[in-house]
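Hi team,

As requested, here is the filled-out complex form for the flavin-adenine dinucleotide run. I kept the field names the same as last time so the parser does not choke. Let me know if anything looks off before we queue the next batch.

— J.
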Amino acid sequence: MTSPDKVVIVGAGQAGLQTAEALRGMGYAGAITLLGAERCGPYHRPPLSKSWLAGEIAAEQLAMRSPDALERKGIALRTDAQAIGIDIGKRLVRLADGGALSYDALVLATGASPRMLDIPGRDATGVLALRSMEDAQAIAQRMALCAESNRPMVVVGGGFIGLEVAATARKKRIAVTVLEAAPRLLGRVLAPTLSEWYAQLHRWHGVNLVLNARIAAFETGADGQVCGVQMNDGTLLPAGLVIVGVGVQANDGLARAAGLACDRGIVVDACARTSNPYIFAAGDCTARSTSEGTLLRLESVQNAVEQGKSAAAAVMGQERPFAAAPWFWSDQYDIKLQIAGLSTGADRWETRGEPDSGSFSVYHYCGDRLLAVDSINDAREHLQARKRLDGEGT
Ligand SMILES: Cc1cc2nc3c(=O)[nH]c(=O)nc-3n(C[C@H](O)[C@H](O)[C@H](O)COP(=O)(O)OP(=O)(O)OC[C@H]3O[C@@H](n4cnc5c(N)ncnc54)[C@H](O)[C@@H]3O)c2cc1C
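And here is what came back:
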């Protein structure tokens, strides 16, 4: 593909903005249109479950770029502009308002949507998931009501988002129960010792933690508001707010409908190229094929940023494969967890530092090969571990 005149990016989030800015950074001089379905421009999502929900930062601090800054870079941001279809033959993106945009290169950066539970009461008012600013505002309002009326809340899912929201709710002295279906917290990503450490941390902060939890229904009052969670064993947990944090699914509907290869996400190579030569994809909406022939789904800021850069390079006809070790962080109470690498397949763990001191790292190995490192309030050790992982080409 020769350098395109018109690049359209669908999704004005972390990956979409990164792609647009990386294009300009690489000297791309053509038109860039950034389409966002939300009413506001690009913003940082991580604080939604942390400092923003805790009331420690204002909404303005979430914004990634001002409209002026985008304008100066010649990036045409269109908010409230949902893409509803791609005409591959005509190279057109169709919009919900009836309009259409032609492209020479198209980048899909549509993110992901929370999974919901298919159980009775799932549509009750006050059963909420957290992905967007709008979700976060609804949760904040409801949390304020719970705090005022001394009503408890229930978090379904002991993953990062659920646990961060639980920690934030405890800061506001709201009674919280976390229901986790698995036998341990964050079981897919953390070593068993760390899962136990987090369970203790949350219990110490007053969270009622239920592992191996089986939920039957969300109880709804006559007013349509959620009032509790019914467990399979007959227990009823009262709740003025239920947060469902049981993972996300990639927003790959547009790509699927257009016939692009998708498998739990838009399938891309290490350079963010899809199965169509004029279409690229980056961020949470993708499933990246690895050198081992597997597909990797990552949901993180680093992944969105790195793939955004790869996508920009690919649009310019250059190869910039995403090769860095994956990296993620989570803040709960005054604890910063940093994870580098992928721990899947680990058969041996080594702890450096003293867990009781609240600052330590867990190294995941498969035989002698370092796969990943999880650090608790241990930034220095973590940085070194990350360099080592990058060097080993994880
Ligand atoms: C509450 C929360 C806390 C998080 N905490 C962390 C953390 O601590 N560390 C970390 O690394 N990551 C964290 N993440 C994950 C991180 O925010 C995501 O991985 C990252 O935002 C992914 O970027 P993205 O551009 O792929 O998707 P998004 O940032 O979700 O952007 C996608 C955008 O595309 C838009 N869109 C979708 N479909 C269309 C369409 N058809 N037309 C137009 N626009 C469309 C969406 O409205 C959305 O604005 C967190 C996420 C959440 C929700």
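Two things worth flagging: The helical segments are 14-25, 67-72, 133-149, 160-171, 192-204, 253-257, 301-315, 379-391. The chain has a mean pLDDT of 95.

Thanks,
J.
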